[in-house]
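ZP: hey, is the LARABZUK complex queued? I don't see it on the tracker
AM: it wasn't, my bad. submitting now with these inputs:
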Amino acid sequence: MTDILAKIKEYKLADVAARKAALPLAEVEAQARDASPVRGFADALAGASREGYGLIAEIKKASPSKGLIRADFNPAALAQAYEQGGATCLSVLTDAPSFQGDDSYLVAARDACALPALRKDFLYDPWQVAESRALGADCILIIMASVSDAQAQELEQAAMDWQMDVLIEVHDQGELDRAVLLRSPLIGINNRNLKTFEVTLDTTRLLSKRVPEDRRIVCESGLFTPADLADMARYGARAFLIGESLMRQDDVASATAKLLANPATGAML
Ligand SMILES: O=C(O)c1ccccc1NCC(=O)[C@H](O)[C@H](O)COP(=O)(O)O
C-alpha cells in the first residue's frame, strides 16, 4: 500500500527548501504584505451556510487516485463558472507532481472572480504560509495526518498573523482529537482514505458526531449529487469541498447551480 502523504511530504520538503533558498523569508513576507487584501473565507462559508449550503468548489486538473480529471483546463474560466453557479469559495490545487497544479492557477482563478480562495497544497513551514498569502490565498490547509501538533500550531499561528483562515483536515478520531486543540473553526472531514484512496461518506457519518458545536464541519471528497449533500447535511455538514464531480462537467456553472439547488432543511440525526 502506498502512503501517498509520506511520498508527497518527502518531495515537498525538498521543494520548500529550494524555494526558501531562492526567496528568503523577509522577501516572501514583503510580497505577502503587497498582496491583494484577504477575503474572509470562513465568514463567507458561515453566511452561505445560514441560508443553504456553503460550497468550496475545487479547481483540480488531476489527482493521484484518478489521474487526469479535466484536460480542458482554464483556471480563470473555471473560477468564473463556479462563481456564476453559486459557489461560496474556491479551492485551488497548486501541487504539481501529484495534482498537475501550479501556483499560477491560484493567482489566475482568484483574480478572475470575487470568491475567497483556499490554497490546496501540503504545508509544513510558515514560509509556505507567507508564500500562500503572496499568491493571494485567503485560507490554507493543515492536514493533521501530515504534521505534528507543534507544526500544526505553528502553521495556524502564521495564518492568523496574516489574517488568513485555516481549514483543518482530519480522517479519523485521533486526528480530530488533535484538530480541536487548535483554534480554527473549520474542520474538514475528508472522506478519502489517503492510504487506500477508498472514499466513503461513512467517515463523515462517524466523525461528525464528535465535532464540537463551536466548530464548522466541511465535508470533503466523494460528493457527486444533491442527495449526497442532503445526506451529509443530516450529519451536521452545511459546507462541502467538491472537486472531481464538478471538474468532469462540460457546463460547470450549470452543474454547480444544480448541485446547490434545494438544500436540506431537515433535522440533524
Ligand atoms: O484526490 C486525491 O486523489 C488525493 C490524493 C491524495 C491526497 C489528497 C487528495 N485529494 C485532495 C482532496 O482533498 C480532494 O481534492 C478534495 O477533497 C475534493 O475531492 P473530490 O470531490 O473527491 O475530488
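AM: back. The chain has a mean pLDDT of 96.
ZP: great, adding it to the tracker
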